């Protein structure tokens, strides 16, 4: 027996699985290879297995980690097979819901075939892999899927063959042909468990290929192809795979050389022809030039005459242009006022439309209730006296205008006309439209856009994410739902699909290289960078100026955080640790998300208690039901041919589904039908196969659910009581009640809110008894049904969005104190204060104005201005205390958690304070942060083109929007505008007053911040206009120069030689987020 025989023996692998398999990363590698296969697998195969419910075998499954990943991610019916008993035993312990079988296919056992045989990284262990293929292919009736190491030139000690293009057959056997292949560079994946390439091969029996109608695009080569492999690796292939491969390569090389010589000769012929034609062209050009010159002279004479005439008109036009510009400027304030009024009216319209829809739903609910129908005779009776009075007047009028015959005629016409009823008209169903073309930014909106970063694709099972998104759109927001399905592309970008023609509701698919699945790992830095580039493109297209972000999976956290939204909400729908298979890095990322979120939303009381461990801003927004979808019985409903009572359930049938409990119910009620509607991903069907009265339908569309629901005599909630379900607020209960159906559930905390509308039991025996009592009490009274429906009508998704918006509105805003130091320049001061009041909506702003003995009327204006504002503190000095002295007064008087030093010759822009606060929150290493500006002597300066403050705001948005969430570290932030958290102020103290009137205070303070172990940063998504040295210009040039040199000496005595500030020549490469 050689070494390779030992490696392929039962004792060898039994020993490996019992000793060092887990320590060597075997389990992680199995899951990794399953992920590689899933991401490379063609969609036609994935859909065919699901649609036709094909059985799948994972041959060589080891301890079942890859098998479980295949079943979970692809919803396939997978059975793991391995010849190692210890491996299968361990697999069954780890994954009780997955099927495993201990058998050796190489011994050719007599057993039924599977439809699909999948095997990951097994054939490389055999000296004759395609002989092994012949054996294992006996157990596949349709497809064989292989994942193999590719071009593994430095082989693992356990591997006996290197797979390459020269030894992978297109037809390994007469019954099999290669239908698809993909090469994947797994070394660039993060994390990776294989530093090299993998190849996915899909072999099919020829009849299957015909049945699938596969096109060329379906077998396209994807991933890293042969052209991406280094030439020296190609030569190594010849030495590795044997003489046959080397001979083939040499023949190909000789042919290539021959072709190259032929091409060279052809190129030489072409070059000669080009040279000849060039000489002829030159001679023709010379003759042509003479003719053209004469024509040009004549043309120039005509143009000169026209220019002289035009010059006479220029002066008049210039004068008109000057007058037009003056008129335009005078109109700008009026236009701004009209736009402001229009926006207020639009917002009111949005609110009233939303309120109208809500009230109409409530009215429809009331009109459909039994109590309204029962009281109809009373309402009719109350209307009788008024009706009689009106009819008496009609009779008098008819008699006066035609006598008794006219009375009789009108009476006969009145009766049939008023007895008719209007036919009901149903609204047409609007289907999803095609993807929208890219277009320019749109008009600014009053309501912020809503970005929903989804956990599922919109077109997957309709759940909480889609319901919330739709109701936000109905409330007047533009809603963009970002699907978790990416488009594989090396270039950033996006596509948009409009989901409802009647609502501003869209699904956005971003382009990410490799199209990673969000459930396997946190995003890599490379993926984040590409997604952010795509998001910047998207925001430029959508014209989004403000947004709310709703995160539903932690994978999106870094992206959502950089959106600088008015509120970053994390919708904590489930206890993800309860799923048991979530990677630790995603759990860690979820913890960061929960801590950082502005609003942490919990769907249940259990999750609320859990959420409070991480965040104080927690709101409970439970699930709900789409009442209008379930409240009315459909025209058709499911019927049991045998007329049995139906005990029904619909929803996911996964690891939290209690199959044993359902088995007890089926056994206890043999004369009833137990109908289970939903996708079975936990192999529950196998557990219940013995019960003839259990029927499972599989997944059905959301629109089809009422068809089954109205057939249920009793609805059940047969969940296991585990951490995952303890945290669950089930949507289906609201839907069950909307149909008026009785509900029996296991005893979960969230059932308490339904009071006696839902019967609960804490044991299997108790559950069976509650079902028995419910069936025996049928039919339910009309009052009982109405109570259920009324409760459901008050728990709709519209109510939940209202709760969501209220929770956002109630959030505490960060307290920011802006210290504005003034010295004369009243006009600039007014502009500064006006901008603070207009563009600081996102924070709780306190304005502390310190005036340093102005003499231009500033103190009188400020006294009047501050008297009418409760958020303003005014300090009026009788002498000029200098830059440091005045700002220190303001800092001492400020009450904010974030302190801003702001010159009065500045104008802030929208979002300035909120964005800088977020940088300090997200990066605690920052001790002080400043903005970009048009006018300063360091790296914060950017080139601008605006000439008016109106244009400034437009250009500022263009500059900052493309750098959302970005900042860079630099040495000194100029104190025309600088924000520091109170913690920095308490550590570093007030500004040094050694420098008198000014100069070098900002350099000095930044050195102290850095000495405290913190960094100074510039926010690239904040722009503040700066006039520059408006106050110092009052001192005069000579006095300024003397003050500068004096303070420079003071600075250098404390900190060493001063380094002059520098501009940025290009964008910094140290940009961070």
TrEMBL record:
Residues 290-334 form a coiled coil. This is Glycosyltransferase. The keyword Nuclease does not apply. The keyword Coiled coil applies. SUPFAM superfamilies: Nucleotide-diphospho-sugar transferases, S-adenosyl-L-methionine-dependent methyltransferases, UDP-Glycosyltransferase/glycogen phosphorylase. GO terms for molecular function: transferase activity. Residues 817-983 form the Glycosyltransferase 2-like domain. The lineage of its organism: Bacteria, Pseudomonadati, Pseudomonadota, Betaproteobacteria, Burkholderiales. InterPro entries: Glyco_trans_2-like, Methyltranfer_dom, Nucleotide-diphossugar_trans, SAM-dependent_MTases_sf. CDD domains: AdoMet_MTases (cd02440), GT_2_like_c (cd04186). It comes from the Bacteria. Residues 52-148 form the Methyltransferase domain. Keywords: Coiled coil, Transferase.
